[in-house]
């Protein structure tokens, strides 16, 4: 919402007393658009096609979310030239920006400049039409740390911080539900009324969990929805036992979801963008790189070259944690998402191949036929079967491999030895046990069965009987 600052007084952003985060409770002007979903986007796009494309009016966008950049590309795609688009970026403050990658941010800003889009940085929305006649916005004023500006526009798009809609807040409050900046939930989706559940970015966890920075917005929305659906299933399925009263959460721990956060879009400069990452707090990439347990970062390609930029981040356990792609050529998004949480040994010794310069292009490497099996929808089930073989005791009185590894680490802790990895003698012992216990033979048999059963989709792999 505009702060209401009169720019004719020469006030700067720091001198403004009103917070730019306050809610707008009136009726917004008819050419001000707040896009929250595909329906809102369709209405806005149709309005722009009807009223702006064939006129000389300008479009003004305000905010720093990734929606700003995808909207600019959409407007240019339907025929609005970049010279008639203005982008105003508010101060980031503690936020990490749309991409959290300086290289990608630089590339997109360069693409906007090439498209003649005018960009204003570190400005705060002050007034529409100087505070009068708010039926339709024609001018928008902004304050900054130095000189204010006033811009003309035929359509205004707001992509500032997401806040709770006033009508939603009033409905929650009138229902006597606890609201603390967001709708308050426990770890089992319950509000203070046990008959009402909640989920999504509108919600937050109770303060007793001491995790104010974490909410459902930090996790994969599809996974959160699945867990909520499972919790509600007992209320509607007559074949299931009735739900018992909410269990008492003695540990007061928030639930942890495993699926990655995924963002894919089409950006200015005709860039295809994909980010797949572990659910985590919004921390600048530069700060993450300084942490001792950051892991390994590998990059191929170039922002401006062919085939494009590909950044892969493996955690301290050598499993894929973040995938960032930016390319002017389309790439198999669904396949790359499958790489998340995959150990590098499943990917043909990825780290070693990269270190000896056998990989110069991750796009090409991950399209190799030898990796097609990891993209199969049954591959996660196969990995679970392999894990079961390693955690199951071969005989009642014989420890499993997992138990032996756990025992080795516990002995090191007992003797106060710092041990992040096993030594050579321990590794050799485990290799011998792996063979002697029959686990190696069992895994090979399962692998051949997996390839034989799915040979229709994986014809590139050899199997018994072919030679």
Q: Give the overall pLDDT as a whole number.
A: 88
Q: Give the low-pLDDT segments.
A: none
Q: In CATH's first tier, which class of the largest domain applies?
A: Alpha Beta
Percent range for helical residues? 25-40%
The radius of gyration over CA amounts to 27 Å
Largest sheet: 5 strands, parallel
* Share in β-strands: 15-25%
Could you please say which CATH topology of the largest domain applies here? FAD/NAD(P)-binding domain
Termini, distance in Å? 71 Å
* Count of alpha/pi helices: 13
Structural class: alpha/beta
Shape: globular
Number of domains: 4
Topology as H/E string?
Answer: EHEHEHEEEEEHEEHEEHEEEHHHHHHH
CATH superfamily of the largest domain: FAD/NAD(P)-binding domain
Please give the order of strands in the largest beta sheet: 1-8-2-3-4
CATH architectural designation of the largest domain: 3-Layer(bba) Sandwich
The number of strands is: 15
